[in-house]
Amino acid sequence: MLERKTIKNLDWTFLWLIAIILMSSLVVLKSASANVVTGQPYYFVKKQVLWIGIGFCAMTVIASFNYRQFLKLGNYIYLLNLGILLAVLLFGEESKGAQRWIGLGPFEFQPSEFAKIAIIISFAAFLNRRQGCLNTFKDLIPCFLYIGIPMLLILKQPDLGTSLVFLAIMLGMLWAGGANPKLMVSLILVILLLVIIIFGILFVATDGFQKPPEDLPIPLPLKSYQLMRLIIFVNPDMDPLGAGYHMIQSQVAIGSGGFVGKGMGNGSQVQGNFLPEHHTDFIFSVVGEELGFIGGSLVLLMFFLLITRMIKIATESRDIFGTLIVIGITSMLCFHVMINIGMTIGIMPVTGLPLPFMSYGGSGLLTNMVSMGLVLGIALRKEQLTF
């Protein structure tokens, strides 16, 4: 139970920001799912309301649990996480060429979503024990292995988007954990160099991004359709009726919205179902077409305010363990928002990452609400209680 001294630290600004984003998501989802063929009017809105209710309950439970207890459970959480990810590869259900789900009766959940929270908590405990020992490249090797094992298991499903989220989480938490700044800059430069090399190879293999990749000069641990999704944003016309179709329709939708949009329920790309997955991965395209530049800017502003509030909570945390957890969650949220919105406007690869709190999806929404519960719990306990 929460002490009265703890409850007075409740961050109402943080809670209101989450509530406003969720209410906005339902308005947009109502329009996005109006003409999706399900046999039931507003089927996805009704299910999302149910998940929001479950999510708020989960957030409350997690916030009332003293996050310091997770410090003792870090290794167990990590091993349990690996076990579940292995179970997905062995017993998971396949859909659209990916094996990412585990069925529990009438429900399905995506373990890779919850794996993000598990890795944030366990990696925070791992770094908490290594304070002052992140000054050389040799010191970082255990960190790379710690993150790399579950990351490879997720990449095997295959889920390229979530595996890249793990990379963003690692970089953010290493920075917050006191890693040598020069070493962090060098690490980021190495990652950028690898990205440039990969894109250079793909540029040559596709005749300047004019045709789909076939035989590559070096092997890459990605399937051909994943490679296409990585490069199609450069030239969607390479495969306009296949891999590039989503991006072309998304750009048309956002571009046609103009400054003020066409109005809720009046988007031709959305209501005509020309834009696929517009209630999930491409929900921001609905915002762009029906609410225009103003609506898109307001969505970005809400996420900006939420992220800055989380950074404030991280700086006020009473210990490094709490700071690491909040920064890990902030890194995850920032990466999702940046990649998803960048994908819809054609400046980022299509990786299948949903827009947090706004895209339809039970596993993703529940993961985000649990993560917000962790942040709220850390904010509640920012002051050391005295007796």
- Radius of gyration equals 21 Å
Low-confidence stretches: none
Name the structural class: mainly alpha
Number of helices: 14
Characterize the biggest β-sheet. Answer: 3 strands, antiparallel
| Strand residues, percent | under 5%
In order across it, which strands form the biggest sheet? Answer: 1-2-3
- Fraction of residues in helices? 55-70%
- How many angstroms separate the termini? 17 Å
Please provide the ordered H/E string of secondary-structure elements.
HHHHEEEHHHHHHHHHH
Shape verdict: globular
Quote the average pLDDT.
Answer: 85
Number of domains: 1
What's the number of extended β-strand segments? 3
Descriptive notes:
By secondary structure, the chain is mainly α. The chain has one domain (4-95, 110-380). Helices cover 65% and strands 3% of the residues. It contains 14 helices and three strands. The protein has helices at residues 4-7, 12-32, 43-64, 70-91, 111-128, 137-155, 160-176, 181-205, 224-231, 245-257, 268-271, 283-316, 320-345, 362-380, and strands at 93-95, 98-104, 107-109. The chain has a three-stranded antiparallel sheet, covered by helices on one side. A hairpin with a 2-residue loop joins strand 2 (98-104) and strand 3 (107-109). Helix 5 packs parallel to helix 7 (160-176). It is globular. The model has no long low-confidence stretch (mean pLDDT 85).
Question: Which helices and strands appear, and what pairs or packs with what?
Answer:
Blueprint: H1 4-7, H2 12-32, H3 43-64, H4 70-91, E1 93-95, E2 98-104, E3 107-109, H5 111-128, H6 137-155, H7 160-176, H8 181-205, H9 224-231, H10 245-257, H11 268-271, H12 283-316, H13 320-345, H14 362-380
Helix pairs in contact: 2-3, 2-12, 3-14, 4-5, 4-6, 5-6, 5-7, 5-13, 5-14, 6-7, 7-13, 10-12, 12-13, 13-14
